Each structure stands twice: as structure tokens, then as C-alpha cells.
Amino acid sequence: MQSNETVDVTRAYYNSDDADSFYATIWGGEDIHIGLYEESGESIFDASRRTVERMAGKVADRLPGARILDLGAGYGGSARYLASRFPDCHVDCLNLSEVQNERNRKLNAEQGLADRIGVIDGSFEDVPAEDGGYDLVWSQDAFLHSGDRSRVLREVDRVLKQNGTLIFTDPMQKEEVQPDEIRPVLDRIHLETMGSIPFYKRELEALGFQVEDVEELTHQLVRHYSSVRQQIVAHDDALARTCSRDYIERMKAGLQHWVDAGQAGKLEWGILVFVR
Which of these, 109, 185, 112, lies nearest to 144 by C-alpha position? Predict the structure, then answer.
């Protein structure tokens, strides 16, 4: 699938009533990314927020007063965390889904953070921002949705200041894994490949970045998607009042594909930090 087609498919999915209802009901409408779990039965909301806290802790010395760009920001939960806890920082949320962006703006206003968080309708393949305007680029589980990740990284390089930082997470495939080995996962997200840790290292080093930290946490990917699937099963009747039955069943099957591929050692996930 071509890059612009991938953008259109992703936007249509996250703008759909089914997806919006699902993420608001199961994830809690704040964070839409993989969580860090410390014990069984932990809520998706708490685990997801722990990921934000872990990431922020890795770059905490750079956040006060920083201008931050969150690529693929979803409902903006990470931006609200950063804006509320780090003095004088400003976060711009770039996101494809107008539906999610509307909710983001509403939550920012309700929490008194609208003056510290901007919400931008757009694609991270063509960031509507000036060169060198940001101290830090942040992204969680979004780059996989691009049909041209190299282009996304070039945009990151363009909008960052000379000594800027990129911190992100992304569901990835192991470098040696062939697409057919994870075909059910790729078909679910309408892609031909995913990134890998070596891919991101090669691409970013070629752009002049250096690796600061790679924390490999693939086991959390399996725990997270297992937890989300369990929540769907547990709240099936309630979810069916806001999501179509077809969407629910496809989500169950899709999540199981992620779990199976992760348990088979074909995927990887973690927190990656690069500096210019």
C-alpha cells in the first residue's frame, strides 16, 4: 500500500464511530498505546500511564521549558501529563484523526491546559511546522502506521533543533522476520512491513542522530494486547452497545494475532531515545 493510501486508511479507521467508542471505553480515552504492567489484573489506564511516566523520566532534564511535538498523539493523554508536570513546557499534538483531536481539545480545555497544548490536524509524513522548531519529538506506537517511516524520520530530523531529542515507542518486527511470518498482523493494520530496532538505528544514525537509550520491553507488548483482549471479552455486552459486533470480533481476532506473534518471538517493542 502506498504511503498516502496508508494515511487515508489510518485516518478513516480512527475517525470511525467503532474505533472511537472502543478506545474511549476500553483504554479510558486518555492514552492509546502499550502499557507497562507490574502485576496481573492491573488496569489498562494505569499501565498505559506508567509508560508515559517511564518515558518522561528518561528525558526529564530536557522537559522543563521545552517545546515538544507529539507525533500521532491520539487523545493527547501524554501531552496533558507533560504539560501539567513540567514547568513552562509547551506540547503540540499532531494527529490524523479529527475525531480524536476534537476530544483532545475538549479534555485540554476541561483540565485548564489549552494554553499549553496545541492540537494540529495532520500527518507526520508531512509535518506542518517550521524547521528546527522543537526541542523534543515524542511518539507512542504511531510510526508503524506510516507506509514510509524513513520519510517520517526525515521530518523528525527537520523539525528538531540541532541538539534535539527523539523519544518513541513502536510495535516492531524482529529484523530477521519475513513479512509472511507475521502476515495476520500486517493484514490487520494494512501494511507490508513494520519497523525494527536495527531499522530505526540505521535510519536515524544516517541522519546524524546518536543512540542514547534502547530499553527492550517486548514482553509488555504481549501482556498489553492480552489484557486488552481480556477486557473486550469481559465487557462484551457493554461494548456491543456502542461498537458493532463485526468490529468487536475483528478486534478480538486481531489482538490474538499480536499476542501469538509476540509469544513466537517475531515482534519487539520498547522505548528508544536518540539525540542529535
Answer: 185
Q: How far apart are CA 92 and CA 190, in angstroms?
A: 27
- Are 36 and 51 in contact by the 8 Å Cβ rule? The answer is yes
Question: What is this structure's pTM?
Answer: 0.94
Quote the CA–CA distance of 166 and 169 in Å, as a whole number: 10
Residue 83, amino acid: A
Spatial separation of the C-alpha atoms in residues 198 and 204, rounded to whole Å: 10
CB 6 within 8 A of CB 147: yes
pLDDT tens-digit profile of 47-63? 999 999 999 999 999 99
Mind spelling out the 3-state secondary structure of 116-171? CEEEEECCCCCCCCCCCCEEEEEEECCHHHCCCHHHHHHHHHHHEEEEEEEEEECC
| SS3 of residue 220 by DSSP | helix
Return the pLDDT at 90: 98
In total, the chain counts a number of residues equal to 276
* Beta-carbon contacts of residue 65 (< 8 Å; ≥ 6 apart): 87, 88, 89
Of the candidates 222, 187, 256, 255, the one whose C-alpha atom is nearest the C-alpha of residue 22 is 255
Return the sign of the alpha-carbon dihedral for residues 82, 87, 93, 98: positive
**Domain spanning 3-275: CATH 3.40.50.150:** yes
| Bridge partners for 120 per DSSP | 94
Using one digit for the tens of pLDDT, what is the confidence trace for 88-111? 999 999 999 999 999 999 999 999
Average pLDDT over the chain reads 94
Q: Is the pLDDT of residue 5 over 80?
A: no
DSSP 72: T
